[in-house]
Amino acid sequence: MTDSSQPTNAKITVGDSELELKTWPASIGSPAVDISKLLATHGVVTYDPGFANTASTRTAITYVDGAKGTLRHRGYSIEDLAEHCTFLEVAYLLLYGDLPNRAECDEWTNSIKMHTLLSEEMKRFFDAFPRSAHPMAILSSATNAISAFYEAYYDPKSEDAIKESTNRLIAKMPTIAAWAYKKSISQPYIYPRNNLTYVENFLNMMFGLPVEESEVDPLIVKALNVLLILHADHGQNQSTATVRFVGSSHANLFASVSAGMNALWGPLHGGANQAVVEMLSSIHDDPAMTVDKAVARAKDPDDEFRLMGFGHRVYKNFDPRALILRSFADDVLAKMDRDDPLLDIAKQLAVVAREDDYFVSRNLYPNVDFYSGIIFRALGFPTRMFTVLFAIGRLPGWIANWIEMHDDPATRIGRPRQVYEGIVTRDFKPIEER
Ligand code: SDX
To answer: Is 42 a catalytic residue?
Structure first.
């Protein structure tokens, strides 16, 4: 079903010749003009830094409407999924196209439970890191490292290999994340337990101790399920595009996901949740830094300071995830009988910025990272674990996109063109003459 109001053809004039271009209709949102024959027929390429106007793929997984601030996964609204589902249900939806029925959900949950352990040799891998290692450095390298145990599952064209790799990555990511945290605090690694749910298991491995039975707070379990769902997928964001790009060379799924983790780590992307809390803390701790001064610095073109957690390549309205998280933060802090001055500062910052023409004229709104860190903090996670939590959430989205890329007959190895502006040619001079 496509939107009938969309154009069915396009023309461009290159020099003296006019070029008819095919269009790809969308079921909703922007259709595409197909330029795949442009270089061959007219000897020119298009230039689009950051690919802000360029679709790298056609997809049926996630739809983001930046103008309206809506987000849907396989047609389901993020609000419905966050309210009614577990994270594993949403992971199944992204990977297999619809929400599981009871039997499918039980089979899916059990197939994940069977693979939560890491090979014992991996303990030496964690031991090799300094305690001060950033957990994202451990997460991305451990994700690549575990591929050494699964060479049988490298083939990107084998359905069985993809299923085995998918189950192991989703099952083992909480174990890797929790062990990276335990390493940083010199505590013993806690093994996964099959009698716990996916999120209970992760929380137990994170905060449990081998010397006592620990109860996992159902409120924290529910909150973390919502947070992981809100991070599960988001169209062709930079880390997802990276996973697709790396996978297009037929690199295995572990290597492709590891590359996506490294892309996510950047403070302009998933690393922003850590940067937001550091920014809010600097406003809270430094009397010289106020909300007004932070906004003024963010507007100053000569100051590199940016309002972290603000702005988005696609959303030119409120990020629906930020709206859910803003009220969710109040709810979680109230239920945990906690208050966090950083939340008050965040709310003040959002009001001041949204009243300032610099932000209004550029359609800069709070994004998913603006409030998520405050909730992660309230749940007991250290700041440097926030992007790791984002990665655990985004993992099914990365894998679903990687699979869709391999299933698409139009897929070719990603290899962009360039506009060369350098010196055209020079005669070689031996070093004595330079
Ligand atoms: C995520 O793509 C996704 O879907 C990502 C994500 C996902 O789920 O995968 O939603 C997750 O990564 C959210 C974004 C987290 N990053 C941050 O919060 C970092 C702060 N935000 C910015 O760095 C920026 O807004 C980006 C990176 C998010 C978007 O960058 P764009 O689209 O390239 O926009 P831009 O940098 O060209 O900004 C346009 C204008 C510029 O000013 P002018 O040159 O027009 O004068 O807005 C300004 C920017 O200087 N601007 C900001 C700002 N963000 C943009 N000014 C101050 N503070 C900011 N945060």
So the answer is: no
